[in-house]
Amino acid sequence: MIFFCIGCEDDYKTEDFSPDYFVVSEIAADSTAKVYLGQTKSLTDMSEFEPIKDAMVSLIVDKGEIEELKYSGASDEPYYKTELVKGDEEAQYTLDITLADKHSLYAITTLPEKKTIEKYFVDDVFYHASTNTSRFRDFSFTASFLLEKDHDYFHIIPRLIFESLDSYGQPTGFYYIDELQNITNMFDLEAIPDFKEGILIERSKISGERINLKFESWFLPNEEKIGDMVLELRTVSKDYYLYHKTVSKQQQVSSDPFAEPIIIYNNIEGGYGTFSAYATDIKYASFPE
Questions:
Q1: Residue 115 confidence (pLDDT) above 70
Q2: CB of 99 within 8 A of CB of 55?
Q3: Cα 210 to chain center, whole Å?
């Protein structure tokens, strides 16, 4: 999941524009580390971003072990990456980048302690008539997890697994997963910043020792059969939370010419962007027959 929200403050003085380096990078515990490296552009430049492929990119764990990241070379994965990151909880990671022109970029993040989903199930599944030819399928799902600290940050991503149907309504055996749409959360909206890919939560704004989630949603089963409901709970670093929160706010006001400008969170020294980390717990729940 990569977002590019970099521009210049003065759109009209293009002759004075000087590009800066930017980084968008995340570490996923027991998974991968990916780093996208590029340069900012004038808002009058409509060309696509081009990744920088010839930099030296390294990860330093707790100021000790050093691992060099290699550029993938694949057109659909324009990243410097490692195959597996086995980080200890609360370990500090340093991102160290040296460009071909000797310019340096530097950032630090901490891998958070993973939280585990205690319970998760789908309930209240039913159909209701919507048109003469189709029916919506409504459902809700419930989940909860414990909170032990005052300053944890979370990203909750609900998804559905679908099986495609052929023209005769028979399953094709082809499955795909998609982020849940049409979602309504059933608890304190003020504590949950709006976020396109799921929901961001800041622990300090939630009272009690447990977060109990209750959502409602629906889908239209005309050409697909629903499979499992997937819930991904990411315990995220503060850098992750602040970056995605400000990106979300910028997206909300992007079409409003009278809105106050949103400054995207940045923790990259020598450039722009973000370096963050998260640990994931994933649970699957089947739909009742």
A1: yes
A2: yes
A3: 23
- What span, in angstroms and rounded, lies between the C-alpha atoms of 106 and 98? 9
Cα distances from 100 to residues 51, 105, 136, 273, 286, in angstroms, run 13, 12, 55, 19, 51
C-alpha dist (Å) from residue 236 to 30, 178, 261, 264, 279: 14, 21, 25, 17, 7
Model confidence at 281: pLDDT above 80 = yes
State phi, psi for 51 to the nearest 5 degrees: -70, 150
Structural domains in the chain, sorted by start: 14-112+237-278 (2.60.40), 117-235 (no CATH)
How many whole angstroms separate alpha carbon 78 and alpha carbon 49? 11
* Secondary structure of residue 87 in the 3-state scheme: coil
Q: Bridge partners of 204?
A: none
